[in-house]
Each structure stands twice: as structure tokens, then as C-alpha cells.
Amino acid sequence: MRRRRIARGLGLLSAxxxxxxxxxxxxxxxxxxxxxxxxxxxKVAYWPDAPTLANYVAVMTEQPFGRNILxxxxxxxxxxxxxxxxxxxxxxxxxxxxxxxxxLLLYTILGVSMFPQVAVLSGLFxxxxxxxLYNNLLSLIFSYMIFTLPFTVWVLTAFMRALPEEIEEAAIxxxxxxxxxxxxxxLPLMGPALVTTGLLAFIAAWNEFLFALTFTLTNTERxxxxxIALITGASEHELPWGNIMAASVIVTVPLIVLVLIFxxxxxxxxxxxxxxx
Length: 277
Hints:
By secondary structure, the protein is mostly helical. 73% of the residues lie in helices and 0% in strands. It has one domain (55-270): MetI-like (MetI-like fold). The relative contact order is 0.14.
């Protein structure tokens, strides 16, 4: 029996190691490629013979990549802040306030996120143009809300439903208003769910490409996915793969750091509402 447990544990450990290697290898190879230059990029190697930071220097000096990173940070942070603020109050209404058509409204909100981006692109472009937001970061913040807000509302609603009703009843007995209940009572208890939805919304906004490509025109207004896609070499048929790998590593590292920092709260938030729906 003991040998069977040991063998099962070793098998599970081996599977986890193989899965980890499979998932991390693309990023590792991109990192190795970003430290190589010239013809070495086209040779298969799992460690650079002569590591160099020339690709990173080229990315930061040959184009306004620092400004592109700042654009992505501002847009993603604004999207997270707006999505969480609106979603918290929407989740309170959908989870705690009983009204006719509540379930239909909740499923309608979820159904909005099922439409592909290209299906709403033309109509959204007309709205952006009429509002005068073309080639403006506000257009990205506005458009990104389409696919971040439904998800945040759904997750926070499920989490708020799982909170004990006695907490809310005690607050009402003490004379607390709905705004006070949300901000002073529920909000501190929703830490794991807020971190989870906020982090996933940040990643979605950080990696979004189609809207960023359509609604921005100049290099100073573009975000990092578009900036990486538009990196070109000396000619149309020559791509600086070293620069592209370096830029990819630069924009991936912040996401890895955020996930590692909020790992525990992320796991707790993903399981929130799993027992009580």
C-alpha cells in the first residue's frame, strides 16, 4: 500500500514537472533568443553562447516602446478600476436585490461577452468616430469594457451570493444604507474575488490587439501588442526577430510578476462561489 502511494506520488510529480516544462519552454526560448544576435538567432540553441542586451537596447531606442508600455499600463489600470467599480455595485443588485427579470438580465450580461470582437468592430468604430475618440486612449478604455465588464459582473455576483445573508441583515438592523453595506461590509470580504477579476481583466486589456490596432493610428498612442506586431527591419522581407523576442519578454514579465504576487488570492477567487450559486 505504501509503495503504491509512493509510486502514485512520483507519477503525479513527474506529470506536474512535464506540464510545467511544456508551459514554460516557449517563454524560456523567447528569453534565450532575445539574448542572441545576428545569425545565431537562426541556430537551435538552448543557451546563448555570447549573451547580449543589444536587442533590448534596440527596442527601447529605435521606437517609442517605453511610451507604448506606459499606454498599456494606463489603459489596463483604468479598465480594471472602472470594471471593478461598476461590477461591485451591479453584483450587489443582481445578488442581493430581488426584482423581476434578474436572472434574464444576468444571462444577458454574460451573453454580451460571447460575441466575437470582429462582430462588433464596425459598429464600435462608428461610435468611437462620432465621439471624437479615434486615436485616443479613451477609445481603448471604452471598448475594452465590453469584454471585461460582463466577466467581472458574473464572477462578483457569484461571490456575493455566497456571502452569509446574516451579515447584511445585521447591517440593516444597525441602520446601514445599501451604499454603506457595499463599501464598508461587502467590499473588504471580496478581496480574493476582486484580485481575481481585476487581474484577469488587466491581462485581457494588456494583451488585446484588434481594438488597439483599429482605434489607434500613431506610435505614441499604440499599446504594446500593436507596437510589437509593427516592428520592422531594414526591408519588408526582413524581420528583426531578436527585437521582437526582446519586446515580448519585456511585456510578459510584468504579468508573471503580478500572478506570482497575487497567486494565493487568485486561487481563492477562482473557487469563489463554487459551492453556493
